[in-house]
Specification:
The chain is 42% helix and 16% strand. It has 342 residues and is of the alpha/beta class. Helix 6 packs across helix 7 and helix 9 packs across helix 10. The protein is globular and about 65 Å long.
């Protein structure tokens, strides 16, 4: 592996506006993982932050604008700590570390002051990729009921499932209960072909996908069969008490106020709940108020309930998804301004 990062020609900034810092890493076995194949991780940091990174032996020298140099230093130190804890580092982890450094530089109030939290499953530690994810993970650990609010692709459901799996594996809960409203079928599931599992699976597939990321397939199947993991449409929750479990309500923006109240009041002894959804993507019939929107109004400030709000900066899917969310948000803002002028 080359020890010097290949750089595209870039005009050198005036010396008065540059800062250089050299980092030394003691474990030579981890250095190639920090650099990435063909130094791609270092090149990504250079491209995103506009700094220069040069490698010599077990040292990395960063130079550039003072603020950007500090961010790059934080990124590299954060990635190194992850490697020392046994984490694997890929493009998404590098991008997440950059976002975290940018959020800290902006004084993002959503970033906890403690060390960055992690959710540990038997498949490894899951670390946040944005300040909002960090705040969300911290809140999932401290609160009995947490609302994760914001656009698709921000990790709301994925991190909630990860927290549930971690609690189940550690024995702190007896089971995980995952639920979504089946809005497209009007929850009249009897009209759909197949047995009950086949009827509800299309609506719950994102929850299955998250589970399979956390657990081996055979373990998911075994825990589902044993009832340690339960996946059910919201319509089947009425009349139940959920005790000693981690319950997740996904796509909560598509609940009615009555359904939301019904789900929240299922909470029994030893249970924790995560409610996730995007208030701007309600698929209910026109004129029907979202239960999630109402819950945000009614429950804000209630002790023991936490709210984490995500936005387009927190989208961790393809970068284009973030730009799409931002474009639609701008359109909605224009509509709101036009409505006020009329």
């Amino acid at each position: 592996m080359s020890t010097t990062v290949a750089l595209r020609p870039r005009p050198a900034p005036p010396s008065s506006e540059t800062r250089s810092v050299t980092l030394q890493f003691e474990d030579n076995a981890l250095l190639p993982l920090l650099h990435g194949e063909h130094d791609r991780h270092l090149a990504r940091i250079e491209g995103r932050l506009g700094v220069r990174v040069a490698s010599r032996g077990n040292k990395l020298t960063i130079s550039g604008a003072p603020a950007k140099t500090l961010m790059a230093e934080q990124v590299l130190r954060g990635l190194w700590r992850g490697l020392e804890r046994g984490m694997s580092i890929g493009a998404s982890e590098v991008e997440g570390a950059i976002r975290m450094a940018e959020g800290e530089a902006e004084g993002d109030p959503r970033l906890p002051l403690q060390d960055i939290p992690q959710i540990r499953t038997r498949r490894g530690a899951i670390a946040p990729r944005t300040p909002a994810q960090s705040a969300y993970m911290d809140m999932l650990a401290r609160h009995e009921m947490v609302f994760g609010l914001g656009p698709a692709g921000t990790g709301k459901t994925y991190l909630a499932v990860a927290q549930g799996v971690a609690l189940l594996q550690s024995g702190r809960v007896d089971r995980i209960v995952l639920s979504r409203p089946a809005v497209e079928a009007g929850e009249r599931l009897g009209f759909l072909p197949g047995d009950m599992k086949e009827k509800v699976d299309p609506y719950l597939r994102p929850l299955y996908d998250a589970l399979h990321d956390m657990l081996p397939a055979e373990q998911v199947a075994r825990r589902l069969a044993a009832g340690e993991i339960e996946i059910a449409p919201l319509a089947f929750m009425r009349g139940r008490t959920l005790a000693h479990c981690f319950a997740i309500l996904d796509e909560a923006q598509n609940t009615t106020p009555a359904q939301m109240k019904m789900f929240l009041t299922r909470m029994g002894e030893g249970t924790r709940m995560a409610i996730t959804g995007d208030p701007s993507q309600v698929d209910l019939p026109p004129g029907q108020k979202s239960g999630l929107v109402q819950a945000m109004e009614v429950l804000d400030g209630v002790p023991g309930i936490g709210f984490t709000r995500f936005d387009e900066r927190d989208v961790v899917r393809h970068p284009l998804v973030g730009r799409i969310v931002q474009a639609y948000g701008a359109m909605e803002a224009r509509k709101g301004r036009d409505g006020l002028r009329q």
